[in-house]
Design goal:
- This is GT4 family glycosyltransferase PelF.
- The chain has 19 helices and 12 strands.
- By secondary structure, it is α/β, with parallel strands linked by helices.
- Among the domains are: 86 residues, no CATH class; 160 residues, Glycogen Phosphorylase B (Rossmann fold, 3-Layer(aba) Sandwich).
- The strands form 2 sheets. Strands 3-2-1-4-5-6 form a 6-stranded parallel sheet. Strands 9-8-7-10-11-12 form a 6-stranded parallel sheet, with helices on both faces.
- Helix 12 links the parallel strand 8 and strand 9.
- Helix 2 runs parallel beside helix 5 and helix 2 packs across helix 9.
- The protein starts with 13 loop residues before the first strand and ends with a helix.
- 48% of the residues are buried.
Length: 504
């Protein structure tokens, strides 16, 4: 893929996208959204700090000329080189680390989280934090905090193995602090969590405004993921404490928060966000790019599109399909989408489930398609079975294509669908099957629902609305950040002068 090496343009605002596991190194909903933003704003210069897995991931999107070469931060690649600090610097860093860990585990010490985090950020930028966390002293600090009288986690009798595991996970999670943060413009984190770390550092060091967009609720997804993670409670307590306090710090420090749906707003307000600094901005699609899908298949068919991942809960969908096939023996379920690296075991589990239920012949995993519209056209009804979503692209794309949908009631799904689709509880195969059968049995209702769905997208969820909204936000925050950095004795800058300075 083409990666540009553009020089900043005089007079152009600058935005640094902060991503994790998405754009520009993978496909999927958030990556599509990022590509839409940068593609729709050729007048703005974009940089990217991308948190990746190993660092060997290829750029899979064609980056336009106004997007610079991405800076990648591998979380799970080889440990960065460097030596731990010595003497006074070591004592200072370990004292900050102790306050950091105490904040994660002691509700009465949470105010110490942010100062300790920023102290550790200084060490990370000097290449010292990672090496320090790989020392025996770091393990001793954690075990010392764990075993303080009065802490609940002490009752779980943390082991040395727990300390090694938790320290290693924290060292990986904190690696984005070592990335050089943006020094001007706007830092736009397109998710919560570790992607925000360079943005918080940029705000602390350079006054760069932080814009936070959450599609799904990062903290909620960590809670869901760690429920079945293969770690003992002391390890989970450390990591979930970190993600919770990081979310709260992100909400408090963001200049603006733009959730993709109103459901996320509840989490953000509970996490300490100022309600006046939250603006819901829905995802959008181009209705011309997703026209009506045309004739339905002759045999009753359910289709699904997305990445094969536990959060998409394909097991519930497969169980629901088994009940559908009990009524309609010629029904099929077609699943479109790639399997992320490391997710092969989940796909195999889903295939084994279909086989165990006696429907392996009717459930097909078809991989990624060149044109996602083909996935929506493949079904009489398009299904969404996720246990967590933001404002899902696959849903509004299918709606734009005029297909009736059955979706789980998570995130912004109900906001997207309105009365133009059926919404069922998550993890409820019987309810999902009943809704699918209801639509499969009623072609006129499916057609009317599909027409209503497309009209809803055209009226409320177009790509042009999304891009125009974010362009205005970028320009607003760019001016605000430049004025903040200006010498207070020199007078304020005009908007035009401020934007010129932002471009540098």
């Amino acid at each position: 893929m083409h990666v540009s090496h553009r020089a900043p343009r005089r007079g152009a605002a600058r935005v640094t996208l902060l991503t994790e596991g998405t754009y520009p190194h993978s496909h999927g909903g958030v990556s599509v959204w990022c590509d839409q933003l940068v593609g729709g704003m050729p007048d703005i210069d974009f940089d990217i700090i991308a948190v990746t897995g190993t660092g060997r991931e290829a750029v899979v999107w064609e980056l336009p000329p106004h997007v610079a070469e991405p800076l990648t931060v591998p979380m799970w690649g080889p440990a960065p080189t460097g030596s731990p600090p010595r003497g006074r610097r070591e004592r200072r860093l370990m004292a900050a680390y102790e306050r950091f860990l105490t904040a994660l585990l002691d509700p009465g010490a949470e105010d110490g989280f942010a100062p300790a985090l920023y102290e550790m950020a200084h060490a990370a930028r000097d290449g010292l934090l990672g090496p320090a966390l790989r020392t025996d002293r770091a393990l001793r600090v954690l075990t010392g905090v764990w075993n303080r009288p009065g802490l609940t986690v002490r009752e779980a009798r943390p082991s040395l193995h727990d300390a090694v595991t938790a320290t290693g996970l924290l060292e990986h999670a904190l690696r984005p602090l070592a990335a050089r943060p943006p020094e001007r413009g706007v830092a736009h984190a397109v998710s919560g969590g570790v992607a925000v770390l360079p943005g918080l550092a940029a705000l602390e060091l350079h006054g760069v405004p932080l814009l936070l967009t959450e599609h799904g609720v990062y903290l909620r997804e960590r809670y869901l993921g760690y429920r079945t993670a293969p770690y003992r409670w002391p390890v989970k307590a450390v990591l979930l404490g970190f993600f919770r306090l990081l979310a709260e710090e992100s909400y408090r420090r963001a200049a603006l928060i733009t959730p993709g749906n109103r459901y996320n707003r509840l989490w953000e307000e509970q996490g300490g966000a100022d309600p006046d600094l939250i603006r819901t901005v829905y995802n959008g699609v181009d209705p011309a790019a997703f026209p009506p899908a045309g004739p339905e298949p002759q045999a009753p068919t359910l289709s699904w599109a997305g990445r094969v991942d536990p959060i998409k809960d394909l097991e519930t969908l497969i169980r629901a399909f088994a009940q559908v096939r009990g009524t309609l023996p010629d029904a099929t379920l077609r699943l479109f989408g790639g399997t992320p690296r490391g997710g092969e075991a989940y796909r195999e589990r889903c295939e084994a489930l279909a086989a165990s239920l006696g429907h392996a012949d009717a459930v097909t995993f078809e991989g990624r398609v060149d044109d996602i519209r083909d996935a929506y056209a493949a079904g009489n009804v398009v299904m969404l079975s996720s246990i967590s979503e933001g404002f899902p692209f696959t849903l509004i794309e299918a709606m734009s294509c005029g297909r009736a949908t059955v979706s789980t009631d998570v995130g912004g799904v109900r906001e997207a669908v309105g009365d133009a689709g059926l919404v069922v509880p998550p993890r409820d195969p019987a309810a999902m099957a009943a809704a699918a059968l209801e639509l499969l049995a009623d072609p006129p209702r499916r057609a009317a629902m599909g027409e209503a769905a497309r009209l809803r997208v055209i009226e409320q969820f177009t790509l042009r609305q999304t891009i125009d909204t974010f362009r205005a936000i970028y320009l607003e925050l760019a001016v605000r950040g430049t004025v903040r950095l200006a010498d207070p004795w020199s007078g304020s800058l005009t908007d035009e002068a401020a934007l010129g300075s932002v471009a540098g």
